[in-house]
Description:
The complex is a heterodimer of chains A (about 110) and B (about 120).
Chain A lengths: L8 E5 L4 E6 L7 E8 L6 E6 L4 E2 L4 E4 L5 E6 L8 E9 L15 E6 L1
Chain B lengths: L3 E4 L2 E4 L4 E8 L5 E7 L6 E7 L2 E5 L6 E7 L2 E7 L7 E8 L14 E2 L3 E5 L1
Parallel strand pairs in B: 2-11
Antiparallel strand pairs in B: 1-3, 3-8, 4-5, 4-9, 5-6, 7-8, 9-10, 9-11
Amino acid sequence: xxxxxxxxxxxxxxxxxxxxxxxxxxxxxxxxxxxxxxxxxxxxxxxxxxxxxxxxxxxxxxxxxxxxxxxxxxxxxxxxxxxxxxxxxxxxxxxxxxxxxxxxxxxxxxxxxx
Amino acid sequence: xxxxxxxxxxxxxxxxxxxxxxxxxxxxxxxxxxxxxxxxxxxxxxxxxxxxxxxxxxxxxxxxxxxxxxxxxxxxxxxxxxxxxxxxxxxxxxxxxxxxxxxxxxxxxxxxxxxxxxx
Lengths: 114, 119
C-alpha cells in the first residue's frame, strides 16, 4: 500500500469547515483513498472513500486531485464531537488474500475549538 | 446490524495466564482483522482472515494465536504475554469485493476494543 503524509495536528473553529489534507504521491492506479477517524478510546470509524472522482456522503466530502497525488477531507460544519484523529489510507480494492491490508499512518489530530 | 462486538472490554492478566479475546459480527463479512494499538499510536495490523482462513500474519509473536471458528467469530488466544503487550486490541470486519465490484462498500467496521493490561 502507498504511504500517506498528513499534518500531525490541526485546529478548527466550531461551525466552520474543517479541511484535512493528505499527500499520497506514490498512489497507483488501482488504489483507493479511504478516510477513517478515531475518537478518543473508541474504535476507528469509516468516513468516506474514493478512487478518482470527488465523493460526498452525510458525514463529509472527499476531494481528490486530478493527478490523484493528494486529497482533502472536508467536514462542512465541524462540531466539538468531530474532535478526533483522522487517518488517510490508500489501499487496493479488498479482494481478499494478500491484498487485504488496511494500514494506518500517523493521522491528523483535529481539535475543534468552541 | 452494523456492529462488531468485542469481549471483554477490559482484561487484566498475569504473564503466566492464558486468556482469549472474542470478536463477533453478523454483517456477513468474510474478512476479519486483529489490530493492536498502543497509546497515542495508530492501530497496527496483526492478522487478517479471508473466508475464515488466515491470509496475513504481520510477523506477530507466537504468544498471540488467532482463530476463526466460523464466518461470524474471531478469537485471539493469549499465552505468556509480556507487560509490553499491554494495549488496546481492536477487531474489524469488512466485505470482500468480487472482480466487478468497484463500487462495493468494503469499508471496515471496528469494534470498541479490548483494553488489555499484562501484569
